[in-house]
Design brief:
277 residues, mainly beta, 14-stranded antiparallel sheet
């Protein structure tokens, strides 16, 4: 899962109530979360398909989005590394009515349950709802923690989102994703995670920003967005904005707070720059 932000040049000042610009800071971050969490889910789904083939010799699975064509090379069980290619072609509308195109390519060093196994994810002309997604995404199995939950290190290196008008956002992050429920099933919809970590990069205006998860984000695969937790977003020259994802309700509402002033906003998969396109 990933979190990074797009910002305007407006700042939150102590003399003002929270403005629409402040809410936009939070909204941008939430959209970014959705883009990179979708990548994680898509990659994990493909890994489940690989597991299913290993044990049942079938490439079909009840959790698969039928939209992409998924190929695995080599198919031979026990032979590693493997390459999984998820090909959405020239455009396909699938889960949650999101449109994806291009390819996600995954290099896997070993079985998903094996401690130390690494998935390295790259993109080939990949677009999510019209936003070009680039970078190297690395997911490593770190083994079980003291709570006996499986933990993954999730890194984004040289990440970039490009809008149709050519504006770009650059970002890198280092997260940990603790698998708290659904680990023993091959059905992703009962999975739950706690995500911690931080990121940094530059905004569309070339300003430096940081993004820190203050309280672990709880993700439930049955829900479209994080259901709880909060993130501190700081951009050069502005006061911090905190995003609160709520108390566990499976909804599409979050709250942005700046200097004690708060405002709710709607979560969505599409960026506001592109809503009228």
């Amino acid at each position: 899962m990933a979190a990074f932000a797009f910002f305007s040049l407006y700042s939150c000042t102590k003399e003002d109530t929270i403005s629409q610009a402040n809410v936009d800071f939070a909204d941008d971050d939430a959209v970014s979360n959705a883009v990179f969490d979708d990548v994680f889910n898509t990659v994990d789904n493909a890994d489940i398909i690989l597991d299913n083939y290993t044990f049942a010799k079938s490439l079909s699975t009840v959790v698969s989005d039928t939209c992409p064509e998924i190929t695995i090379n080599p198919l031979t069980p026990g032979v590693w590394p493997k390459t999984i290619t998820i090909d959405f072609g020239t455009g396909c509308t699938g889960l949650y009515d999101n449109t994806r195109s291009g390819k996600i390519i995954i290099e896997i060093t070993g079985p998903r349950w094996e401690e130390g196994s690494v998935k390295t994810v790259t993109f080939e002309d990949y677009y999510f709802n019209g936003i070009k997604v680039e970078g190297t995404h690395e997911v490593q199995n770190m083994g079980y923690n003291t709570n006996m939950n499986l933990v993954f290190s999730v890194k984004l290196m040289n990440g970039m989102l490009t809008f149709p008008d050519g504006q770009t956002i650059q970002h890198s992050f280092q997260h940990q994703r603790e698998w708290t429920a659904g680990m023993q099933t091959r059905n992703i919809w009962d999975d739950e995670f706690l995500v911690t970590g931080s990121g940094s990069g530059t905004t569309v205006n070339g300003l430096a920003y940081t993004n820190t998860i203050m309280t672990a984000l709880k993700w439930e695969r049955a829900c479209r967005f994080a259901v709880s937790g909060n993130v501190d977003v700081e951009v050069e020259g502005s006061d911090p904005v905190v995003i609160d994802y709520g108390n566990g309700d499976c909804d599409a509402v979050a709250t942005a707070t700046c200097n004690g002033e708060s405002k709710q906003f709607q979560l969505r998969f599409r960026h506001r720059f592109m809503m009228n396109n």
